[in-house]
Amino acid sequence: GKIINISSEAGRRGSALLMAYSAFKSADISLTQSLALELAPYNINVNCVCPGVIWTPLWERLARSLIELNPEFKNITPREFFETRIVAGRPLGREETAEDIGKTVAFFVSEDARAITGQSLNVNGGNVMS
After folding, report:
1. Residues 16-70: pLDDT tens digits?
2. DSSP 8-state symbol, 91
3. How many CB atoms lie under 10 A from the CB of residue 112?
């Protein structure tokens, strides 16, 4: 069997703006490792995908809040803020997509990943490397 958890790059390092979110996502990663050990005798692989930034309602709210806190950004939309201030500063310079995450999950559930368990894979354009 296969179990795939979805965490976040936020679970790989703390965030001053998203403390609780980062803590919970870090717990997802630890849970993945614990389950991998617990379920290995039953031939069940447990892995985790850690996406980077994907435009979601969470990011829209965060961008809106950051714009409100910084008058210099008052003339841009939350999406423009996200693209110019968040995505543009990432090593690959692009946001991740649901398809990127789906393909990673498809790999983890494939026979090609049969020897992989307890791992958390960053799918974040190089923003957090481990």
Report:
1. 878 999 999 999 999 999 999 999 999 999 999 999 999 999 899 999 999 999 9
2. T
3. 10
pTM tops 0.85, yes or no = yes
Biggest alpha carbon–alpha carbon distance for the chain? 57
Determine, yes or no, domain membership for 28. yes
Q: Tell me the three state secondary structure of residue 52.
A: coil
Identify which of 41, 50, 46 has the alpha carbon closest to the alpha carbon of residue 10: 50
Region of 44 (left: φ > 0; alpha: ψ -120 to 50; beta: rest) is beta
State which residues form the domain around 44.
1-52+100-130
Known catalytic residues?
21
How many residues can be counted in the chain?
130
| DSSP reduced 3-state for 47 | strand
